Amino acid sequence: MAQFEEVSKQSILHPKPAGLVLHYGTAGFRSNSIHLDHIMFRMGLLAVLRSKKTKSTIGIMVTASHNPEEDNGVKLVDPMGEMLAATWESYATMLANAEQEELISALNEIIEKEGIDKSPEASVFVGKDTRSSSASLSQAVLDGVHALGGHSKDYGLVTTPQLHYMVCCKNTQGKYGDATVEGYYKKLCQAFTQLVGNASNRTDDQKHLCVDGANGIGALKLREMISHLNKGLQVTIFNDGSKGKLNHQCGADFVKVQQKTPTGIQVNPGDRCCSFDGDADRIVYYFTDSQQVFHLLDGDKIATLISTFLKELLIQAGLNLKIAVVQTAYANGSSTDYLENTMNVTVRCTKTGVKHLHHAALEFDVGVYFEANGHGTVLFSKAAEDKIQQLAQDSRIDDERKRAALMLQSTINVINQTVGDALSDMLLIEAILAIKGMTVEQWDRIYTDLPNRQLKVKVSDRRVIDTTDAERRAVSPAGLQEAIDQLVKTYRKARSFVRPSGTEDVVRVYAEADTQESADALAHEVSLAVYRLAGGVGDEPKPL
Ligand code: G16
């Protein structure tokens, strides 16, 4: 096939370092950027095959999200804007690791296994974040797409959720929205303006929000979006990339894990603040109180706020729709308890990775999914959307039901249902706080988090750790879970688990307990168990 000759020719310009093995992780490939040129070229090839298979446009985002600036990575987007189907992750790994001379046979293997008809045209949308390596790596993606005869549209600098949105818009022939960045701003901002129209007059102070852009793409895109907001929100952007380094001592991951205010942000007690991550698919909120104590409102608190709001609207609208919240093992025990026992909503726990949460959320009429790290969104089933729309147009219902139905409609439009989206989540949270007349302190008081700590342990091969029960228990290496169980027993209200990260070369340790000292001590002791039983490298973990 002539196309394969082109692939062979082009692949020489994107050579695979012999012996390098990389795996498709939690959200695609991620590594130091110097290892990724061949991966990008090959993911361009894979996207063409996926596009032919699904007869739809596929997305490729060049980003390493929360990782440091020197890393990069690639996320593949399926037709409805969701993450690449799990069955194709193994093809991605196979293609990425095929030695140079095996590349064509690897492509043929995928074509045969999937029964791919080569005749349909292929279309791939490409986006990139602000990393210095992203320009050449996204060119490598485009080279791969073109080598296999695919058509491409390069969106250049966009947030990851914006690219997911474009893919969905294209494949729904515009029903989800216009496949342009301008169309995205218009849809979300119009819905936000309609929603806050339900709030009583707000002062400039109440409209004010401090945003830490993690020195990344989110800051650039937020600046573009502001002009569409009709002064409904007054934003001060810190860490906008003009001087600081991407994700360095700032951004959602830093704030969540370190449980402190990022550097580069000047705020007063009580100021409402939020942080995006490096590709703006995560958001966390926080404030410092008059005693200078830092308060974090993470993905769990966001899920609680949003699901409370939605549940109240569904009741007001008189709609009997099943709402559920999907979390992971990282969810704070207090949040799960509050959701299940005070709010009486169904709670599901899945493995880490939005692809898992997204699938679980699809099972409900209204599925709110959030990882504690601030990655999440809300999914409405087609039936739920239809019912809401019918109600909003029904002239026989009373004003309260009508208002609730219209608010639900605007809520659907402000949300990016394709994937967690910091910009969209921020607009929804700001609208909810405005409508409820709620301060960030009041939101924080809905429930009190159990003190918790997250640590990282370096081991020689993190894949020796295998887990089960939505990653809450380790099944290997031998003795590790027993050691964790013993340690947990020595603290009150304690819980701990370990899992290999799918984005960084570390094992993650999570612990919570009744006091911060206990959570810290437990996290440290579990880290030591990992270090000793799972092949720790470097110095032994030190107490905090
Ligand atoms: C990605 C995934 C998230 C996940 C995070 C950390 O986020 O999309 O679902 O929670 O990695 O994963 P891990 O603990 O396996 O390293 P992002 O924002 O970095 O793309």
Automatic annotation (TrEMBL):
InterPro entries: A-D-PHexomutase_a/b/a-I, A-D-PHexomutase_a/b/a-I/II/III, A-D-PHexomutase_C, A-D-PHexomutase_C_sf, A-D-PHexomutase_CS, AMG1_II, AMG1_III, PAGM. It comes from Oryzias sinensis (Chinese medaka). One of its GO terms (molecular function) is phosphoacetylglucosamine mutase activity. Substrate binds at residues 371-373, 499-503, 508. Residues 52-85, 103-168 form the Alpha-D-phosphohexomutase alpha/beta/alpha domain. PANTHER family: PHOSPHOACETYLGLUCOSAMINE MUTASE. Catalyzes the conversion of GlcNAc-6-P into GlcNAc-1-P during the synthesis of uridine diphosphate/UDP-GlcNAc, a sugar nucleotide critical to multiple glycosylation pathways including protein N- and O-glycosylation. Residues 456-527 form the Alpha-D-phosphohexomutase C-terminal domain. The keyword Metal-binding applies. Mg(2+) binds at residues 65, 277, 279, 281. It catalyses: N-acetyl-alpha-D-glucosamine 1-phosphate = N-acetyl-D-glucosamine 6-phosphate. Residues 179-284, 298-437 form the Phosphoacetylglucosamine mutase AMG1 domain. Belongs to the phosphohexose mutase family. CDD domains: PGM3 (cd03086). The lineage of its organism: Eukaryota, Metazoa, Chordata, Craniata, Vertebrata. Binds 1 Mg(2+) ion per subunit. Its cofactor is Mg(2+). Pathway: Nucleotide-sugar biosynthesis; UDP-N-acetyl-alpha-D-glucosamine biosynthesis; N-acetyl-alpha-D-glucosamine 1-phosphate from alpha-D-glucosamine 6-phosphate (route I): step 2/2. This is Phosphoacetylglucosamine mutase. The keyword Transmembrane does not apply. SUPFAM superfamilies: Phosphoglucomutase, C-terminal domain (SSF55957), Phosphoglucomutase, first 3 domains (SSF53738).
